[in-house]
Amino acid sequence: MTFGAPIDLSGFEVPGRGRGLLDVFTRGYLLRLLIRKGTATRYRNSLLGWIWSYVKPAAQFVIYYFVMGVIMNQNRGIENFPIYLFAGVVAVNLFNEAFGNATSSIVDNRALVKKIYLPRELFPIASIIIAFVHFLPQVAILLIVCLVVGWQPTMMGLAGVVLGIVIIQIFSLGLGLFFGAMNVRFRDAQNFVELIRMFSTWTSPVLYPWILVQGALSNHDWLFTLYTWNPLTVAVELFHQGFWAPTTGTGDTTDSIMPDFGVALLAALVLCAAMLVIGQTTFRRFERSFAQDL
Length: 294
Description:
The protein is mostly helical. It has helices at about 30-40, 50-70, 75, 80-110, 110-115, 120-150, 155-185, 190-200, 210-215, 220-230, 230-245, 260-285, 290-294.
């Protein structure tokens, strides 16, 4: 044995440091376990079980429809307003659940984080996939209602819905990584998350048409531009064009889509990518002390 000889460490990894999101693709089995665990335990010991996935959005829809459709008279101003409303509610619900679950995913899995090392990004990614699974029953109801009123889907509309889902998931993951890391060190980060989730329904055209915002901000075009660049606004409009617009009977959706929507879509995609980079960078900076902070 020769003392002082260099040791080959090429076959080893530094504990606690990996390649971030890229490591998730090499841990498919662990990801499936976390998803199975999350979906199996969501309604454990619940009398209604998965029925709550239908009851909650239905109750939410009834309240919004009564306030905005009946009291505020939006039901007369927008053709097939119930479908317009529910399409937006479904999109925002996906964002709220994915973002909220991703934010709390590290704290909720503190036992695993403190005992073993595994890519911590597995937890927020599993959370947004679980949110997507719970989103499917709501889409099923929306599809049934659309078919009843004569929905005639188009390839462009369906592709828009898929793109809207992708935008919501990427945006939720980026925000979830950022606030999830912050939430471990500073627990009041959860309060900021609740504020964002509360405002999400009102800062996108869910309960009202975008044209009202355009009219209210007619003297501040730059504010309306920022409004249209909101990834959630773009995703909701993609849902409207995929589900609601084909039921209006005109067959022409160009009048109902926001101005410069192509620019808004590109801006939303850039913002989603930027948020994902910021979230991953922040997450990797804070993850070294997750076990100690928990």
